[in-house]
Design goal:
The complex is a heterodimer of chains A (about 950) and B (about 190). Among the domains of chain A are: about 145-290 and about 390-495, no CATH class; about 655-935, no CATH class. Chain A contains 43 helices and no strands. The relative contact order of chain A is 0.08. Chain B has about 190 residues and is mainly alpha-helical. Chain B is about 55% helix and about 5% strand. Chain B has a two-stranded antiparallel sheet. A two-stranded antiparallel sheet of chain B has the order 3-4. Chain B has two domains: about 10-90, Recoverin, domain 1, CATH 1.10.238; about 105-195, Recoverin, domain 1 (Orthogonal Bundle). The chains are: A mainly alpha (about 950), B mainly alpha (about 190). Chains A and B meet through helix 22, helix 23, helix 25 and helix 27 of A and helix 3, helix 5, helix 6, helix 8 and helix 9 of B. Chain B: It is found in: Cell membrane; Cytoplasm; Nucleus.
Chain lengths: ~950, ~190
Amino acid sequence: MLSFTLVLLLSAAAGEVATDRYADGAAPSPALSPAPSGSATEESSRPAVALARSAEHPTPTTVQDDASHHHGGGYRIVQWEWSYVQTPYIIAIWLLLASVAKILFHFSQRFTTVVPESCMLILLGLILGGVVLLASKKQLYQLDPGLFFLFLLPTIVGDAGYFMPARLFFDNLGAILMYAVVGTLWNAFCTGFCLYGVKQAGVIDDKVEAGLMEFLLFGALISAVDPVAVLAVFEEVHVNEMLFIIVFGESLVNDAVTVVMYKVYISFVAVGPGNVQTADYFKGVASFLIVSIGGTLVGLIFAVILAFITRFTKRVRIIEPLFVFLLVYLAYLTAELFSLSAILSMTFCGIGCNKYVEANISQKSRTAVKYTMKTLASIAETIIFIFLGISAVDKTKWAWDTGLIVCTLIFILVFRAIGVVGQTWILNKFRLVHLEKIDQVVMSYGGLRGAVAFALVVLLDEEHVKAKDYFVATTIVVIFFTVMFQGLTIKPLVKWLKVPRSTNRKPTINEEIHERAFDHILAAVEDIAGLNGYHHWRDKWEQFDKNYLSKLLMRKSVYHKSELWEAYQKINIRDAISVIDQGGNILTSARLSLPSMASRASFPEMTNVTNYLRENGSGVCLDLQVIDTIPSAKVEEETETHHVLAGNLYKPRRRYQSHYSRHFMTAGDQERQDREVFQRNMRSRLESFKSTQYKRHKKDRSQKKRKGSDAKEQETIEKPRRNVSWQDKDPVVIPLEPGEEKAEHSEAEKDEDVGITFVAHRGSETPTARPKSDSSVTEVCQSPSVAPPSPTCGEKNLPWKEDVDSLPPCVSSEATKIIPIDLQEAWNQSISSLESLASPPVFQEPQHPHPNTFSRLSAPTRPPTSAEFHFPVGKEEEESGLPQQLQEIQPLMLSGRQSLHSLPPSAALPSGKRRNPCVYLRSLVTTPPSNSVPHSRKPTQL
Amino acid sequence: MGSRASSLLREEDIEEIKKETGFSHSQITRLYSRFHSLDKGENGALSREDFQRIPELAINPLGDRIINAFFSEGDDQVNFRGFMRTLAHFRPVEDNEKNKDPNIEPLNSRNNKLLFAFRLYDLDRDDKISRDELLQVLRMMVGVNISDEQLGSIADRTIQEADTNGDLCISFNEFIKVLEKVDVEQKMSIRFLH
């Protein structure tokens, strides 16, 4: 069964095209055309299809005809349909294997920080290759160029292009072009000529039958820096953005140079060096211009098409991500079709469309695009490296020549270094930011070779290039050396050289504003000084973009938003999301250094965002077209978001927010103003908190009903509500609740309560672990501490109280991340339990106006009487209605006027107001309570 | 014209300007010819109108503010020295002058670059950016489609983020602090031709 390989199968379809592109006129390489097995597959699969089809029809009859089935044996219940499912099956198994391998590598964190993933994957590939070789005596799998160029490479390049930081890229465009064009040419020629020289000198074995043209060809394919390898290695190194963009940009842009040189030399080799005419060299140069500029143009055309299409997807949001993938991929394929530089095309398509597409599509589509692209790119990268390893274990393709290998290694390293130093010297004369010596070292050392070189060398035609096997072996060694040795050592090197690292953070609103101002200032100064410099032209471009391009390519509703406003919204949304992820403790300075989402390898917080967005949709929806409960018109969603944000998010009445943590720790000398702000915030949180408890209290009530004790219903409703908030706030007060709990509820109920509560509780329970975040927590928390110690304090042995105590002192922040889901569950539970009541869930609130309105409206302003501050304890008081209400507001009132000393670790981690986590989010971050009610019923897009 | 203009410039002046601003001789003569071509009144000084005649400045949202930055308080003329002194803020920081003289802060130091930007906001020169001042600049930088309310929330948030002492204004120190992670040396420099 193993004899059918992924490679073979796909190569049948894919091989031809790729061969056309890279080896004009060259016959398909042996690696590509395993004709016998490929056709055997097709033959065997055809009957299999027929078999499977026919199996579907007889099913009903055979079931009835049980007897004939048993005796005749004409139909078998279980059939072995391997050949039918083979192709997708093997692909799926490979993907699974690659993904599991990734997981395994990341088990040991210490290990992965030292050894780059790409190294591990290559090693794994070597092992797998060895296993296959032992099992079947010949190597069946290898990195197939067709598969690589048509499927694996585009996913990586597409991801890189689409998420390319455009500003950074164009800021350094000069350097990138220089290194990509001049540097690659320099490397190729020098390596080729020197290898030829060395060959003449006799260092390379005579068995390597290669002339000048062959060596130049080899030099061309081996000298190009590889985007896949650079991405894989540099991603883990985190050098500063400028350095990264220069090396990475070079690796993308040099594709044009490589393609042209490769093709030119192939044709030269084919016709024989003697027959090359002068005109052919000029054709080569012209071809370079056409390939590079043409590729770029194709990319930009597709970018415009894509952006234009996404203008009109308002009613079919669900296919927005598909358009992005399709058109970006089409840009790649179209460039391949015309044998232009496909990588350039895809890169520029991504860079060009990003701004407009991101503005046009919905937030969910954005997340979907991002996630899918990253997933695909990540898995493609994994497969590439595994297959590189596997391909190496194939002795039939190897022809080892130490002289050639050593010389190649030395030459590519030396010439890369010389090239970089020389070009940097020239560039520094023109650059505003000089490239320092350490930058040059990293750039020289970061010139990694990779799968592109391998795929190209495999595509060589053995008829014309006699030394192909030697070249293949050398290429593999070079790739392994650069990816493994250099990849392994570049991190220590970067550390040792103290190369500035990337900061990995998102700009703050101040930076957004001031940097925009800087741009305007610089443009103006250039104009005054009469220089038509970079800023002058950028300014011109932006004018053009604003006046024409954006008008054409952006939705009207988006176009009219200012970029600054968009940036502001983005920041707010980011903060708001992290509010949830951190369990509601966002109001600290920590928010300014949120972990970046840029890294492909890991986006922990993204996971939660998606969870969030997913949970956002309410209930089950079978309509594939619908993502939202409400038709997600962009305008509507934006007005809403905007309204909410404008009205609510971070409206800073007082400044200090970022200081809560510190002030809170040293509580005593807190300024009065601080407290007011804090209290206002906390009040709103508490309200959202309370409303959450409706869910729970509804649930309780239904349970109550089952018990038949309607009289006590009101209490039961009230109690859990208080429970949660207090538990969340201060363990000290908790003892009070257990008494009631014990009296009224069954163990099961308690468990449920505890479950919800503790999730909220845990998140912020760890002051030591997350000192910054917990400060912001809540002022309300204070109220418990001032409250008189309740007599029930002794009841610490209650089951759920024990739970609290037994919690580890440091709970990872992960714990908080489940909150939205938990709440969702709680909500669903409450819904289901409410069904017996036959009341529509959404309108539950009005049914219990008193706790809600009472606390929400009157609590903040109402001057509480001191007598009522004593915590009503004991069952007698519970029975009476009024005390209970007071109990209800007590936290609020306390928080309103007590001075807050010790801040109990807590989380006013409210919980989705009703079922919509968004609302919860809003209410968390914002103050005005009056707004929250009307909004709460509409799902909002964030 | 360039040669005629530079001939009007005496060597001593050039030397002095060189010392003060760090521009090279050729840069100074080049900028002097620019200065001269801007100087329509031919009186050796530029007025606001001279600046306003530059077409690109008319469409630069911060154009007027930047023009103002060239004029010291109460003055409506700027001579070549002043012109050069302002432009010197945008000279890139050269490697060899980074720690030349720690006592005299060069015009193109990080702080001076930031101060220049800060002054654009700080209209009343009280060394604080108030909410109103910030709003004015924001209004210049965004289109008419942003409502006052929206702009207000941006301004509020901006101030909240930067303000550490609670006066609801951004002082220069707070301004420096909030941009400390920004590569100001790079982002507030342009390349003057040699």
